[in-house]
Known about the structure:
The chain is mostly helical.
Amino acid sequence: MSTLSPFEKLDQVLTALISINNTRIGYEEFRNSFPNYETKEFNEIVLKLEKDGYLLKESVTYGVNEYNRQIVDEFMATFDGRYFMETGGYKIQNERKKAVDEISDRTLKRSQRNENFIVRGTWFAGIVGLLVLTWYIFVWFCPHPHDCFCNIKH
């Protein structure tokens, strides 16, 4: 049997909870439906689903008096959890996140390349501007260059 990714495990547990059709299920019964998961791992999955708002956990007290009173955690899928699984669950969410990250990386590289192009173009324009300014200063002081340089006696 191949090992499942954490996203697939989250999807599997949430799908099982949704398949109960809005009835509550006790912790032990829910836990026993996943014998291949360690207790710690199962508790972490339940905690993650609860923190994300896809699982509702309620502590229910059974018994009439204090001698036979028992507190049991019961679970139920929320509307957000059912909608989340209809839109693909954790696995699809992770794939979308990877695609968005890849697009962001490409956009970042493109913007850095454009930034370098603009910086080099600005430097080039500045140097050309200084050369033109130097030429105009030269022309101002020596309007006829052949007069300035050709009559030089050695």
